[in-house]
TrEMBL record:
Binding site for (6R)-10-formyltetrahydrofolate: R63, N105
Keywords, ordered alphabetically: Purine biosynthesis, Transferase
GO cellular component entries: cytosol
Protein name: Phosphoribosylglycinamide formyltransferase
Species per Swiss-Prot/TrEMBL record: Candidatus Neoehrlichia procyonis str. RAC413
Known role: Catalyzes the transfer of a formyl group from 10-formyltetrahydrofolate to 5-phospho-ribosyl-glycinamide (GAR), producing 5-phospho-ribosyl-N-formylglycinamide (FGAR) and tetrahydrofolate.
Gene Ontology MF term list: phosphoribosylglycinamide formyltransferase activity
Site keyed Raises pKa of active site His: positions: D143
Pathways involved: Purine metabolism; IMP biosynthesis via de novo pathway; N(2)-formyl-N(1)-(5-phospho-D-ribosyl)glycinamide from N(1)-(5-phospho-D-ribosyl)glycinamide (10-formyl THF route): step 1/1
GN (gene name): purN
Enzyme Commission numbers on file: 2.1.2.2
Length: 206
């Protein structure tokens, strides 16, 4: 059996995407395990969830973000892939250079549309008929980097920002573990900043 890759998950809040990853890791056939959870917020509810799952947790300074400490923790825990899961700090270029193509993020829009904060509200206010989420590699530019997986979420006439956000979050919990699985199994290639795979890279809300 292939050796499981080790994940370091970075959070700032409740960690619902973190929990979806932890749940996936509990499946014996999932090719990854959660090595540690790091937060820039000592009050993040996700820390409690991680501790209940017997995962080591750490809190680092937020302003300025202590990337040296983060890197020290990741190296100590032999982390192969860093998963940003609602991590509300910008990571500096040197860190990303050291961990090139080893940091992924999930964003609640169909990138490259609606980058930055409140993406669901941006999409709703723009009147789009299809919203969604994106798992992507993290590059220095905010919400950039090669797109790994996307999911489309139709916007109904009865939706508001809250209901649309809930639908998108539902798909985030499907897409993030799937992206990790493909990376762990070496099922994706990157050519000219475009991710390619023989596996499914697009989902529809259901």
């Amino acid at each position: 059996m292939q050796k499981k890759i080790r994940l370091g998950i970075l959070i700032s809040g409740r960690g619902s995407n973190m929990q979806s990853i932890i749940n996936a890791c509990h499946n014996s056939d999932f090719p990854a395990t959660t090595a540690c959870v790091i937060s820039n917020n000592p009050d993040a509810l996700g820390l409690i969830s991680a501790q209940k799952a017997n995962i080591e947790t750490f809190v680092v300074k937020k302003r300025p973000l202590d990337t040296n400490k983060i890197e020290e923790i990741l190296i100590k825990h032999k982390v192969d892939l860093i998963c940003l899961a609602g991590f509300m700090s910008i990571i500096d270029n040197n860190f990303l250079k050291n961990w090139h193509l080893k940091v992924i993020n999930i964003h609640p829009s169909l990138l490259p549309s609606f980058k930055g904060l409140n993406a669901q509200k941006q999409a709703f206010d723009a009147g789009v008929k299809i919203a969604g989420c994106t798992v992507h590699y993290v590059y220095p530019e905010v919400d950039s980097g090669p797109i790994i997986i996307q999911a489309a979420v139709p916007v109904s006439t009865t939706d508001n920002v809250e209901s649309l956000s809930a639908k998108i979050l539902n798909m985030e919990h499907i897409c993030y573990p799937q992206a990790i699985r493909l990376i762990a199994l070496n099922k994706i290639q990157i050519n000219n900043n475009v991710v390619q795979s023989t596996e499914k890279l697009f989902f529809m809300y259901h």
